[in-house]
Amino acid sequence: MPWREPNNYDDWDSIAVAIYESVVSRSLEESSEWDKFDAVPKYDKRTDCYSNSSYLTTKDESGACAFICFETKSFPFDTSLFGRLDESNVVISFERRKTDSVGFVLAGRSGDVVTIVDTLRVLP
């Protein structure tokens, strides 16, 4: 099954979605830190604005960019695609980072308040 972009097989993307929902989405929602935040967009959902969403972001620039999906250049999921946000949380550009160099944190939104969460404790 081809997994390198741009020739990756459609089912490869389905595998990425399943892993993300199982490992990331469920862990967020079942953590003690999830404080009834607004929902995180689905994996690889392209949106123009994050003003009504929680999102994964980078630890080094908390809140400045929103995680969209993983991409594959040389190794599976070796690249992370982010939307760069302006002060209104509108996506102004896209950028790619090597996944192994990204420290992910949660920008949990509740109304107009955003809380950066860098550690999660998943409830049993």
Describe this structure in words.
- With 124 residues, this protein is an alpha+beta fold.
- The chain has one helix at 10-29; strands at residues 55-58, 65-71, 79-85, 91-98, 104-110, 113-117.
- It contains 1 helix and 6 strands; from the N terminus they run αββββββ.
- Strands 1-5-6 form a 3-stranded antiparallel β-sheet, with no helix packed on it. The protein has a 3-stranded antiparallel β-sheet with strand order 2-3-4, with no helix packed on it.
- A hairpin with a 2-residue loop joins strand 5 and strand 6.
- The N and C termini lie far apart (35 Å).
- The model has no long low-confidence stretch (mean pLDDT 90).
Question: Short description, anyone?
Answer:
With 124 residues, the protein is of the alpha+beta class. The chain is 16% helix and 31% strand. A hairpin with a 5-residue loop joins strand 3 (79-85) and strand 4.
Task: For the structure shown, list the relevant keywords.
single chain; 124 residues; alpha+beta; 3-stranded antiparallel sheet; 6 strands
Number of DSSP helical runs: 1
Number of domains: 1
Mean pLDDT: 90
What share of residues are in beta strands?
25-35%
What Rg is obtained from the alpha carbons, in whole angstroms? 14 Å
Residues in helix, %: 10-25%
Please give the order of strands in the largest beta sheet. Answer: 1-5-6
N- and C-termini, Cα separation: 35 Å
Please trace the helix and strand order, writing H or E for each element.
HEEEEEE
Number of strands: 6
Shape: globular
Structural class estimated from helices and strands: alpha+beta
- Low-pLDDT segments: none
Instruction: Sketch the major β-sheet.
Output: 3 strands, antiparallel
